Amino acid sequence: MDILTRRRFLIASGVVGAGALAAGAATLTLSDLLATAGDRDPSGRTLVLVTLYGGNDGLNTVVPYADPAYHDTRGELAYSPDEVKRLDDTVGLNPAMTGLHGLYGQRRLAIVRGVGYPKPDRSHFRSMDIWQTANPERPGTTGWIGRWLDGVGGDPRLAVSFESAVPPLLAGERSAGASVPVAGRNRRGGLSDPTLAAFAAGSPGESPAQARAAACFADLRSVDQMVAEVRNAAEDAEGAEDAEDRPAATATGGARTSLQAQLDLVAQCVEAGVSTRVFSVSLGGFDSHADEKQLQAVLLGQLDRALTGFVERMDRTEAGRKVVVAVYSEFGRRVRANASEGTDHGTASNVLLLGAGVRGGLHGAQPSLTDLDDGDLKFGVDFRDVYATLLADVLDADPARVLDGWRGRRDDLFVPA
């Protein structure tokens, strides 16, 4: 089910933010965002949420390579101690995550282990609803960032998704964030660059509507060029592992544009000083029921390159050094591999935090691989504790007002300002 179909499903069923998604959500252009350059408080932080749709296998992302139970239950899916990118004497990162391993060594990557919620649900849609509404007890009607947006005035430019539709997490009770889609903008063939440039140029004496049309065309053209450059670079780097050649996975969602392209647009907005405080981007395809090892390595390689390049770019400017990236998925996978060299839907997993302000290192205890809940990991950190910390330390908000009175918090994730 793609993002647009899922959005229609959510609106029809009333599960998440129906009123806001149906009436309040906006579709903007990059120019709309860039027009707000200089409107924000330069001391404020920016939050970038990266959703990994499909249920990323946390045990093969942050690998407990020294635990015999890992090798006993994973078989051919297990990574040997000499394959992983070691973090300490017990755990290491997936071999594809070389850039993030470097950031960890620089104390710019925080890994929160064993993150989940009570009575976990193994349905993609229900679990993602829980993560995006921050309401495990009952079906939510608004997203947690949408509720934050309600409390700061409801301007959709404050919370933006570079996806084809506004995700549920940006839908509030009275307002919703905006989408700035970057996929599907292929221009017509046969037109030369000078002709296309002429379409994008204004003319003396033209009407306001004509001027607006030219500006929009120029904006779309610049985005197309940026996306094409990123895609070409990714194809050169990935070769046979290009995203179009990887195995298909089911019910995963995620943007149709590469994560690197989405983050490049986020970077451009941050560097311009736009008013946006929250950006939502995504990568899909993690529903690895069969032949997982190669599929996940390709996806984690894409994630690694996109995040590493983004964090290094953000480190060059003062505004960029105030950016915090949070990476999550709707659930992890089962501890034991299945008969198809894959893993089935599980429970607790990892949340990754990146940026100059995070307290790098391992946070939370490694879940036991032998003391299980019906074959699944027991969570040790409630995801609402992580959200509360992001709300308080990044968005300067009262977590209890956004998270229905939730009082939990993590005091170990950020360096004091």
UniProtKB/TrEMBL annotation:
<feature type="region of interest" description="Disordered">
    <location>
        <begin position="234"/>
        <end position="255"/>
    </location>
</feature>
<dbReference type="InterPro" id="IPR006311">
    <property type="entry name" value="TAT_signal"/>
</dbReference>
<protein>
    <submittedName>
        <fullName>DUF1501 domain-containing protein</fullName>
    </submittedName>
</protein>
<feature type="compositionally biased region" description="Acidic residues">
    <location>
        <begin position="235"/>
        <end position="244"/>
    </location>
</feature>
<dbReference type="InterPro" id="IPR010869">
    <property type="entry name" value="DUF1501"/>
</dbReference>
<dbReference type="Pfam" id="PF07394">
    <property type="entry name" value="DUF1501"/>
</dbReference>
